[in-house]
Fold this protein.
Amino acid sequence: MKEILIIEDDRSIAELQKDYLEMGDCVVSCAFDGNEGLNQIKNRRFDLVILDLMLPGKDGFEILKEISETKDIPVLIVSAKDDEISKIKGLNLGADDYITKPFSMGELVARVNSHLKIYDKFKKNEKDIITVRGLKIDIKDRRVFAGNNEVVLKQKEFDLLLFLAQNPNRVYNKEDIFERVWGFDALSDASTVTVHVARIREKIEENPSKPQYIETVWGAGYRFKI
């Protein structure tokens, strides 16, 4: 059974989410402030976190940042903040999804189940080969196949593709990608990422102008779509 943590200061909303998720055979815990939620994350293992942004104690952005730095679990933001800046900030910090209140419980359950399936599929493949639709990334041998054809990627092209594929459905801005893949500050060299993404698309995408793997999230960065 999957274990889910809800961090939400509105107890009535948290209990309603808990009831619906438990009908789907999930084990659900609740935390009603940021510090309590972060403490549970540090001391227990969860398969997914549902995170509100406006919390007493540590806010949702602070918690999300710590999760991204220390844990490998999907996070769904559920918030009344519907402005674009909050959504972009949340996705950039590592959230896998952003749901704006009010929403239906059916939608929440469907999104939770979708992310749990994606994460399970990814974890099964990550040790050896990542397979997404017609794309296959052989991590050990550093080989990439698009359909039945092997494509030759240069070192940093492979490293960039692998980084995004190992963090599916998360949005990273160009500075973060450059720093993680190239290993140093990217303030003046973020355009390098754009060039490498374009080269990768030319090699792995059937139609580079309409990419199905590395998506551009306008105003935010790039995301590897599963």
User: Anything to note?
Assistant: The helical segments are 11-22, 34-43, 60-70, 84-92, 105-125, 155-165, 174-182, 191-204. The CA atoms of residues 3 and 44 lie 10 Å apart. The first strand starts at residue 3 and ends at 7. The chain is about 45% helix and 20% strand.
